[in-house]
From TrEMBL:
The keyword RNA-binding does not apply. GO terms for cellular component: plasma membrane. Keywords: Cell membrane, Membrane, Transmembrane, Transmembrane helix, Transport. The chain crosses the membrane at residues 21-42, 86-105, 117-136, 148-165, 266-284. This is Carbohydrate ABC transporter permease. Pfam families: BPD_transp_1. It comes from the Bacteria. SUPFAM superfamilies: MetI-like.
Length: 299
């Protein structure tokens, strides 16, 4: 018998090999199916507009050009709208996650006055809202209409996100905070130094939710903002697409094919809007699933 370490290789049966191979094939096909819409979107943005309009682009770009991107980036006031959108996303996300998590933290404290009443009062707002007209009048009386803060303050706290964070905090061992309390730490100190560092998965998940919501929103601008200097990129591109569709509808068939394609423009606008926010996802993806599972354990 040979001395030294003997390496034992696990014997894999033929049936297991077949199952493994089938699994690789199935998941590879599924991955390609998930990626294909993004690939198709990108090849349509650089393909001939007439071919895109008539659905003749399948797997490869044809008549490659970058005029659609040139046209989009030459839109008047685009750079200012990008600045407003980025600023709104950053400020809104920080304020939203901070306020929502702090509110969730206090709802975990039994010593909070009227905790059950206020918690149920907040949950009710998930099912009943005042409606658009009362909301508009309220924001106008508060002086928020046609200001940058209309993007931040009204949606600063999300009850749904608050419930997820509250559930995650309640899963923490109470002894962690008790030891800090005995050392003289107050609510704010415990929240900042103990609770938040241990809530990275759920906070990363909520951050993604809030950031995507701010980035994609154009309805707030449409209803509450009339100052062009406060237009977001999504609203500006939404208006551009509507104007193009109106102009194309008034053209003849030959002029329409030669001039512009609403389908190609729509694809380009979609790419311009979704690519930046997609670049953020890989950095917090590792927290995403764990955060959702933690927040879904109990309510």
């Amino acid at each position: 018998m040979k001395t030294g370490q003997t390496k034992h290789k696990k014997q894999i049966s033929t049936g297991e090999k077949i199952i493994n191979a089938a699994s690789y094939v199935i998941f590879t096909v599924f991955t390609l199916l998930c990626l294909f819409p993004f690939y198709y979107l990108m090849i349509c943005t650089i393909s001939d507009n007439a071919l895109v309009e008539y659905g003749q682009i399948t797997f490869w770009p044809r008549g490659i050009h970058f005029d659609n991107y040139v046209d989009v980036f030459q839109v008047q006031n685009l750079m200012n709208s990008v600045k407003i959108t980025v600023l709104r996303t950053i400020v809104g996300t920080v304020a939203g996650v901070g306020a929502t998590s702090y509110m969730a933290y206090f709802f975990t404290k039994t010593e909070m006055w009227g905790r059950k009443f206020w918690y149920r009062f907040c949950v009710i707002t998930m099912y009943f809202s005042s409606g658009l007209i009362p909301s508009y009048l309220t924001n106008r009386m508060l002086g928020l209409n046609n200001t940058f803060w209309i993007y931040i303050i009204p949606g600063c706290i999300s009850v749904y996100n608050m419930i997820l964070i509250k559930t995650s905090i309640e899963a923490m061992p109470p002894s962690l905070e008790e030891s800090a309390y005995l050392d003289g730490a107050g609510f704010l100190t415990r929240y900042l130094r103990i609770v938040l560092p241990l809530q990275k998965p759920i906070l990363a998940t909520i951050t993604l939710f809030v950031a995507v919501s701010h980035w994609n929103d154009f309805f707030t601008t449409k209803i509450y903002v009339t100052n062009p200097k406060l237009y977001t990129m999504q609203f500006l591109l939404y208006e551009l697409l509507n104007n193009i569709q109106t102009a194309v509808g008034q053209m003849g068939t030959e002029d329409r094919d030669a001039y512009i394609s609403p389908a190609g423009t729509r694809m380009t606008l979609t790419a311009v809007v979704i690519i930046p926010i997609m670049c953020v996802y890989p950095f917090i993806q590792k927290y995403f699933v764990k955060g959702i599972m933690i927040g879904a354990v109990k309510g």
